[in-house]
Amino acid sequence: MSLQRYTAFSAHPTGGNPAGVMILERFPSDAEMQALAAEVGYSETAFAVPGPNGAFTVRYFSPAAEVAFCGHATIALAVALSDAGYQTSLTLATGVGTVPVKVTRDPAGSVVATLTSAKASVQPLDAALRSQLLSALRVQPSDLDPRFPVAIGDSGNLHPVVVLADRRRLGALDYDFDRLRELCLRHRWTTIQVVHRGDDGTWSSRNPFPIGGIREDPATGSAAIALGSYLRELAAIPVPGEIVIEQGRDLGRPGHLTVLVDDHAGPIRVSGTAVRIP
């Protein structure tokens, strides 16, 4: 299949997070996939090759580097495979492990994909590194929501979780790109999950992504898994339960991610719509 363009976590092509999708008989060289991802310019492009028993092996490239796993590109790929006539219950072999995905339709008729994480855990963040991270984000300790300590959510990718007390402060986020990129490279962080919890329980999110070669990710499934794991660890979400994340509004590409926490340990699911970009 030639390159396809889909946007994930939105039912409209102008929302959510765009991803390139290629379904191939075999993988091109790493250099070719990296060059194509850079040319496409989206935060990730997914390359998928079919294997036995309906499984697919998937690799993900940002404009600057390969990443082990990408949630929004997985949602986009699953819907693209469904549109191409493949089965709607898929098994994807990724750099972080096996990721099952199911494609359905919601009551409004939109195509919805739901992935199940390969990993979901939380790691502490020491005080010195916390200070460096906040400084690179240009966030003061007084900007934080005191109910939520800064920590690392692990979805197979590492995502520091920073919870701000004020939605307006989230909207005004303006970080030091070079300093944050250096920290991300040194500590293997993928994006930074900077969030705010609204009074209605909806979470607003922004995701700086300096190691990917772009300033910010409009909708981030991997970071959504990290947030779900983080909230489960803090007992800040009922189990079973779910949260809705709105992301991309500050970038003019609004999208919504649903995070489903089914039990007190193990995988976390992320669900969202996806549509082809004309």
Please describe what this structure looks like.
The chain is of the alpha+beta class and 278 residues long. It folds into two domains: 4-103, Diaminopimelate Epimerase, Chain A, domain 1; 121-276, Diaminopimelate Epimerase, Chain A, domain 1 (Roll). It contains six helices and 17 strands. The chain has an eight-stranded mixed barrel with strand order 1-2-3-4-6-7-8-17. β13 (203-208) and β14 (216-217) form a beta hairpin. The protein starts with a strand and ends with a strand.
Secondary-structure element order, N to C: EEHEEEHEEEEHEEHHEEEHEEE
Strand content: 35-45%
What class would the helix/strand composition place it in? alpha+beta
Task: Estimate the global geometry from the Cα principal axes.
Answer: globular
Overall mean pLDDT stands at 96
CATH superfamily of the largest domain: Diaminopimelate Epimerase, Chain A, domain 1
Q: Radius of gyration over alpha carbons?
A: 17 Å
CATH topology of the largest domain, by name, is: Diaminopimelate Epimerase, Chain A, domain 1
**Helix count, per DSSP?**
6
Helix content: 10-25%
CATH class of the largest domain: Alpha Beta
Based on the structure given, which CATH architecture of the largest domain is correct?
A: Roll
Number of domains: 2
